[in-house]
Amino acid sequence: MGGLEIGIFMTLIFIGLPLFPMLLWLGVIRLDKERVRKHIMASIGTTASIRWRPLKHGWTSDTLRYGDGNRIYEVHYIDLNGNSCHAWCKTSLLGGVGLAPDEL
What we know:
Blueprint lengths: L2 H41 L1 E8 L6 H8 L4 E9 L4 E9 L3 E8 L1
Antiparallel strand pairs: 1-2, 2-3, 3-4
């Protein structure tokens, strides 16, 4: 390898290594949102919005303590009666969806 090839290789390494985990994380968030959307549509109603809330008090400590990899989402949805509802949702890749209704 010449000097130019090594320079290009090192540039790709320094750009690609930090970028890969971020792209992977965005994929995980997208899969989570789709899982939550399917859960709500199958049993409760129609989703209006799903937002990732990484620092929600109480649930973050469970993730750090037990390493279960759960992520927390704030969900707004329309139930079968047409009411606008708000809930907190906890999900992970293998753990399913846990929904805690907050208010109607």
